[in-house]
Amino acid sequence: MSVREILQYELWSKKTSRRILLGGLVVALMVMTGLKAWQIYEFNWLSDGERKAARVALARIDELRTDNPSNYDDLKAMNDFADSAIAAADAKAVTERDAITSMQLRNCEFMLLVKVGIELRPGEGATKEQLDARAKLLARFAKLSDSASRDCEALHNALN
Fold first, then answer.
1. How far apart are CA 131 and CA 8, in angstroms?
2. What local confidence, expressed as pLDDT, does residue 154 receive?
3. Does the CA dihedral 66-70-76-77 come out positive or negative?
4. Dihedral pair phi/psi, residue 120, rounded to 5°
């Protein structure tokens, strides 16, 4: 076979190019659809382990709200109890939604701790200036507390 005869054969045609391009487009479309499905799963799915752990943590946070500790030592003990449940919920986080839920639990706990800590009775040696500063702090915190309560209620509804 001579060089002329070899050059006569068409190795690559428009039809071959179109087939490769179409196959590449189909593969790219499938990959993009899969990635979008994974993204929807990541941001909208709350795993069962996280849901159970978050319910337990939220129950412990609610105990902190309803028990009204009388001093800072009781508050610290109750906080450690709630914090261990939140750490367990963090450990169960699988999806992005799980991580967001853990962050919301930490936010509820923090806002509640600040509120309870501010509302604890001051010591007997508190001066008038300290009492006035505490009253101003309580007034400023009222708006944040309302917002945090709404967030915690939304978290309750999402977990039930």
1. 99
2. 76
3. negative
4. -60, 145
